Amino acid sequence: MTISDELPVRLRALAHPVRLGILRELFEQGEVCACDLGSAFGVSQPTISEHLRVLRQAGLVQTRRDGTKICYSPDGAALDWVTAGLDALRPAVPAR
After folding, report:
1. Are 73 and 33 in contact, with CB atoms under 8 Å apart?
2. Residue 53 near residue 85 (C-beta atoms within 8 A)
3. Which of 13, 29, 65, 74 is exposed most, by the fewest CB atoms within 10 A?
């Protein structure tokens, strides 16, 4: 996938306040099981699962199965990639 294909997918995934909050929580905690996120955001478990699915499909989080639980952690490299993609959109501006 090229930057022009992947960047909109990742930006769409980040364009929801709950998903941004989930990602922030994952960066603060390192790894969190999906079942522990619902109460932090005041939404149902199915809603959290849907938001996590969007983040996973965008490549912004990684998963690990722990028995019946699925634990999520942030993919820092993917977020760096988004930042680099946004920087690439900016036209070169000469230093003043």
Report:
1. no
2. no
3. 65
Distance CA 7, CA 93 (A): 22
Q: Identify the structural domains of the chain with CATH numbers, from first to last.
A: 3-82 (1.10.10.10)
pTM of the model: 0.82
Angle at 54 between CA 50 and CA 60, to 5 degrees: 130
Q: What is the mean pLDDT of the chain?
A: 86
Higher pLDDT, 4 or 63: 63
Residue 60 and residue 29: Cα distance in Å, rounded?
Answer: 15
* Contact (Cβ atoms closer than 8 angstroms) between residue 35 and residue 44: no
Contact 49, 38 (CB under 8 A): no
Please tell me the distance from the alpha carbon of residue 58 to that of residue 56, in angstroms, as a whole number. 5
- Which residues touch 56 (CB under 8 Å, ≥6 apart)? 62, 63, 72
| 50 vs 45: CA distance, rounded Å | 9
